[in-house]
Design a protein that fits this description.
about 240 residues, alpha/beta, Rossmann fold, OB fold (Dihydrolipoamide Acetyltransferase, E2P), 2 domains, 5-stranded antiparallel beta sheet, about 25% helix
Amino acid sequence: MKKENSKNMINCIVLDDDLISRKLIEAYSKKASFLNLLHSFQEPISALSFLSENSVDLIFLDIEMPEMNGMKFIQTIQQKMPQVIIVTTHTELAHKAFEYEVTDFLVKPFDYSRFYKAVLRAKNIAEKDALHYIDDDNVFIKKGSSMVRIKKSDIIWVQALGDYITLNTEKEKIIIHSSMNAMEAKLSQKHYIRVHRSYIIRIDKIESIEDDIISYNEKIFPIGKTYRNYVYQRLKMI
């Protein structure tokens, strides 16, 4: 099966200690034209090392692993969080998994149609993007029936709002149809940091952090448990 153009590919890895499950996901991934399977792992430590050195968009993640369960693995990631599709035999873990902002939840055994539905959701999330570049800092944003230009550097924080996000500047709040993952990918990691499933904030606007709460100009932002290690590492607090 012919793969899509590389710029439209979703780079993915598999982490599952069960050989049969791992091989199945590998085979299914190769059938999906927009997935680029980079590597497959049976234990978490090697996967974490790979994430630190490679750009990964999506992880197929087993929950029940002997060395480190899937939830702990997510908490340990210190890079920008990829999308995650959980793979498990335990349906009762679904609610807890979605607390970690996972993209989907595959219950073993699953067929290709269910797998494809999950990865198509990941693809749609990755492609939701309302920003059109002019140069490194200036972008056009669709606002109603018009396109308006703003400077990315004027964005102070970004907030999720269902299928939309709000871009907050000193002067205005702009609502656009996009995803937090797409927005995070467009903003400079040097200047912005995602601190919660619903918030991205400009680093130089952070005034204080106390009890996993970030303050800026009387506005407070919670630090999500999924992002805590990443935030504290970026801000050199641990």
